[in-house]
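Re: export button greyed out
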Amino acid sequence: MSMAGTAANPSPLAQDGAAEALHIESLHKKFGDLHVLKGVSLSARDGDVIAIIGGSGSGKSTLLRCINCLENPTSGVIRVNGEQIRLKADSHGHTIPADRRQIERIRSRLGMVFQSFNLWSHLTLLENVIEVPVHVLGVKRDKAIAEAQTLLDRVGLAEKRDVYPAYLSGGQQQRGAIARALAIQPRVMLFDEPTSALDPELVGEVLKVIGDLAREGRTMVLVTHEMKFAREVATHVVYLYNGLVEEEGPPEEIFGAPKSERLKQFIRSIG
Amino acid sequence: MELLSPVPPGWGGSLLRGLLSSVEIAVGAFGLGLLIGICGAYGKLYGGPIAKDLWAVYTTIVRAVPELVLILLLYFAGTDLINRVLVMAGYEPINISGLVAGILVLGFVQGAYSTEVIRGAILAIPQGQIEAARAYGMSPILMLKRITLPAMLPFAIPGLANLWLIATKDTALLAVVGFNELTLTTRVAAGATKAYFTFFIAAGALYLLLTLVSNVFIRRIERWARRGMPSTAGA
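Workaround output, generated via the alternate export path:
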């Protein structure tokens, strides 16, 4: 992984030969007059766990949501798995994906986990997990169900397969949402503050699942407020301030020996 | 009572045939209205500026003009217009059946109300569920079929149930254009036998029966549509 946009200091991981999973270059995002991202670059190789940290309004969630064009970037380059997302300007001058099929295909390989879970309320847990494999990826239903069982078992929800999301606790819903993301065999997993909407006593069970995934070498980008967790599982930490990368590096440096005054202050205030 | 006997000289058979015609038209019109409503709701929510304006004109006009006027207008002017176009294009004028015309006219009216019911229901879906569908690469059509329609259904059922019951009764308006539905049949029977009270009570009972049977189905459909939602009873 390496990070442009700051000083030219290629991360040591950049040379380890793993394939590039994600590459973002000088990404800008404006909402009207509000300039949220002001030229952010980052890339992830297979097995990287990138934690994006930063204060409220730093643009960290927007950055994550630009990766699969849930928010359309104003300008910049996004490459997933070596394939660049083609963008074009619409009649209002907004940037949108140029090829609907391309963006749909790319999205179907990015497993997104949301802050508010966003399980489909009219489908049972099992139906939620097999929905995308069966209807988007064209996996046979029997096969998808067998795989979903394994995944639900793994996140500790095997008993709950026929329960509707509204009858599950927040922690169970989020673990179910992680199973839904895993079911598409994602190239990269995207976590958007996965524990921020949870009651404190439920955070642990979700972090444990995410931690296990990180340790088994899943490629992931994680926006989080859980600094202790980020320090434990991330291979690379990016501190975003006011739409720019203020500082980045291995977790021990970012948390142990921060250079930037703002980052020092941020870590103190969180900590 | 022998006036209501299902075999002639009793008029019961005619009344039941009238009821059947009414139900046919109501089903057709409600279905057509639902289709128009889904398109209209999508057009109003996600369409371009021109589509939005066109749908707004449609729903405003249809909901502003009394249904009886619309029915007379669309039935006579509509069939006339179609035939003029056909003649101009060099075809023979056609005779549009009362059933088809009734379904088209009432469906057109129902569509305007459906549009608003469905639009409101789509807006009531938690936005995150739509976003999740996008984030996982669903195409717009797949999303409509798999997520938007089933997720909006629980919010739409009360409004749509209203529309269905209104559709069953609006069929009576087609009596004015001479279509043999339940109300016109009743009037004919009553006029021929002078037993006005008997026949209109009988017709009223049939409309009530239709509503009661509908309610049973509506309740079932609603329970099914709300399967993922915790019951509000006792909450």
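Chain A touches chain B at residues 68, 70, 100, 103-110, 112, 114, 116-124, 131-132, 135-136, 164-167, 184 (CB under 8 Å). The button fix ships in the next patch.
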